[in-house]
Amino acid sequence: MPCVIKACGGLLDVGLGQGVHGMVVKIGLALDVYVGNALIAVYEKFGFVGDSIKVFENMSERNLVSWNLMIGLSILETLSSTEVRSSFRCRR
Description:
GO terms for molecular function: RNA binding. InterPro entries: PPR_At4g14850-like_plant (IPR046960), TPR-like_helical_dom_sf (IPR011990). It comes from Rosa chinensis. This is Pentatricopeptide. The chain is mostly helical. It has one domain (about 1-90). It is built from 6 helices and no strands. The model has no long low-confidence stretch (mean pLDDT about 85).
């Protein structure tokens, strides 16, 4: 599934990406760390910062890629430092 999600980002098809996200939730793959990372990356590519943060916050497991995506997102999108800090603080 992560490859399918990445392909949606490559096609720049927001609707397809959101549809795949819905399907991922429906079939129970939303908790997979690789799927979560792919969703964060594709929402970042679409410029949907809020959706990226929601996916990150709902992930039951995070890895180095997850954290790097969020750090990169905060730098690229210049999120307010309080928003980023609150996301990181919740997971310590």
